[in-house]
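SAMPLE LOG
Freezer: B-3
Tube label: C17
Construct: single chain, 273 aa
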Amino acid sequence: MFQKQLGVIGVGKIGYALINRFISTKTIEKNEIIIFDIDNNKLVERSKELNVEYAENNVSLVRSAKYVLIAVIPQVIDKVLNEISPAITKQHTIVSIVAGVSISHIEKFINKPVGIVRIMTNTPAIVGAAATVIASNAEVTEKEKSYVQNLFDSVGMVVELDETHLDAVTGLSGSGPAYIFIIIEALADGGVKMGIPRDISQKLAAQTVLGSAKLVLETNKHPGELKDMVATPGGTTITAIHEIESAKLRATLIRAVEAASIKSKSLNSSKVE
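STRUCTURE (predicted):
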């Protein structure tokens, strides 16, 4: 029925990064993808760079592809949904990575039984190290869910949660890279203050965060236990930890996740009519 497997609406930074990763990991073949973007210059440029076909408009894309990945900014998704709704059939599966837009909001516009998968991923997808969470409605089959999971496995780790957790996921892993970038920058500044050259200090800070995260994931040990392995009695680390706790870094990060989660929820609420 469909000429293509995957149609992507919106080929900005994240849309482009995802397609590039899907192709480079051979998760999907180039000839199985079709793209569209309202910016015609960007559309033609991305089509040439990725060597994939592009559609004339959103409706043409939907009629060509079974899986429709929507990667636009929240401000324009209603316009996109209005355009594609008449062309959507029960054979389609809609995959949305649009922040703050619920499955029920999409269902309201489509107004027919169709599988919808809502996804929260993050920018480390660019290097294949994303933290991705998926949630789906009852119309999504196991085969369709497996296909979407396989796509996003190629950009990092994938877990499935109930949609009620998506706002919290946005606050934690969706916005989380920005928190970690600040921490890396601050650690590097500390190194520079103590005489380490800037380029070396930044590499050491970034590798320290990368290695620490890998240690948590691969050992499955509690971060507190791993922290205690480094902090020897009367040593440098426990002295530094005292400074960190005095500055309330832990509480600040908890509040950051909470604030971003609340903001995500308010964006979602603003979409409810």
